[in-house]
Design goal:
It contains eleven helices and 14 strands. It is α/β, with parallel strands linked by helices. The strands form three sheets. A seven-stranded mixed sheet has the order 6-5-4-7-10-13-14, sandwiched between helices. The longest helix is centred in the middle third of the chain and has 31 residues. 48% of the residues are buried. The structure holds 5-S-methyl-1-O-phosphono-5-thio-D-ribulose. 5-S-methyl-1-O-phosphono-5-thio-D-ribulose (MRU) binds next to α2 and β9.
Length: 352
Amino acid sequence: MSENRICAVRLDDAAGAMIILDQTRLPGEVVYLTLTAQEEIWDAIYRLKVRGAPAIGIAAAYGVYLAARAIGARDYEGFAAEFKKAKEYLASSRPTAVNLFWALDRMERRMEAEKARPVEEIKASLREEADAICREDEEVCRAIGENGLALLKPGMGLMTHCNAGAIATARYGTALAPMYLGQERGYGFKVFADETRPLLQGSRLTAWELHEAGIDVTVCCDGMCSNVMKNGWVNAVLVGCDRVAANGDAANKIGTSTLSIVARHYGVPFYVCAPTSTIDMACATGSDIHIELRKPEEITEMWFEKPMAPAGVKAYNPAFDVTDAEFITAIITEKGVVYPPFADNLAKIMKK
Ligand code: MRU
């Protein structure tokens, strides 16, 4: 990957602001937004200006740090009460990606661990923690890339859904990380990117990222996965995820579950790429995962000059679905590749 890389989220500490790449403007425009108010940060997450489970976590960590920085209380109790309000507010922006809650909880734990120190020092340690969350995500994604690449061979055809790429993380992505590392090593992968209805993360973001990196990428409509796999063009499917339950069920962008079932039909391995921060052992199964429902207009009106459904018609718009563990060949984490039985093997890897 080029060193002049696009960065999804970063902190401008001097300006007291978070800088994000506005992912709603891609692929046409590369626009960075400077966010200072908590409402702006909440809105950027809600509207998917910053999106993808790890990037949401990083944005929340920097967001709650910026909120903490502005708290006037000099005593720990007053400070902690304000911090918790800011944390709860940011946590209400999106429900499915566990990284949002994981990052905010980690920030809160750091605050509590520093409680004996003066408030100004607690603020500085929160900055350190947010930086650590961002830095570690880059390391984690690289390790997922290495672990994923070890399962692949040069010249393979790969299919992916949504965008689990560099702009969904600190760097490299999760599902796209093996593709970037493969590109550095001359693997010559041919990638098929589902367009990903209704918000088109596949065609707007994944195709843009991979094309910019010089990786061979072909956009497919969401309904084409069976056709493309039947043609024998796909040797492995790699997807990201927003939350993995303790039994291995994995929530990811709507349409992922279909892909997993089709992949099983054609004997194509189906890999879920997940940092351990996305594994939620408190969710027993996929039924415990809160699936975000979004506005019907995203299906009927966005991206088109004219409405693409009759005025007043109902539209069902869940942002995610749950891929049943039985259709997942393996879960690729930074700590290693987890195979079934997932209930046992996820528990083991989380203890590592
Ligand atoms: O609604 P989005 O665009 O935030 O959905 C993102 C996904 O489904 C990604 O696959 C997932 O968050 C993993 S990103 C590394």
